[in-house]
Design goal:
Elements lengths: L1 E6 L2 E4 L4 E9 L5 E8 L6 E6 L6 E3 L7 E6 L4 E6 L8 E9 L11 E2 L3 E6 L1
Parallel strand pairs: 2-11
Antiparallel strand pairs: 1-3, 3-8, 4-5, 4-9, 5-6, 7-8, 9-10, 9-11
Length: about 120
Amino acid sequence: QVQLVESGGGLVQAGGSLRLSCAASGRTSSRYAMGWFRQAPGKEREFIATISRSGGRTAYADSVKGRFTISRDNAKNTMYLQMNSLKPEDTAIYYCAAQYTNYDIVSFEYDYWGQGTQVTVSS
């Protein structure tokens, strides 16, 4: 089992940037594909980005492609989401997630979740 804790959320003006972090503990996080999701008030949870065990493979939702970058540092058991050119519609609670994988692949389904960090983008 792996435990996940997000940090780095906050209030930012439109056009600004934030970097979210997801610290993993427990079983070796390098054996897990990891991802970011978000949930805005009144909306369903939405996939944002995913990264494979090595970090060599990534995938993004169309809504963030070109603005957000997912990365990971397995030596620090930490995953990141660099968010640039933020828009008010990016306002949401952001969650990180982890899924054990046998291969170096991305995942769109996850067993382990963090508690979330709030991101608010003002216009």
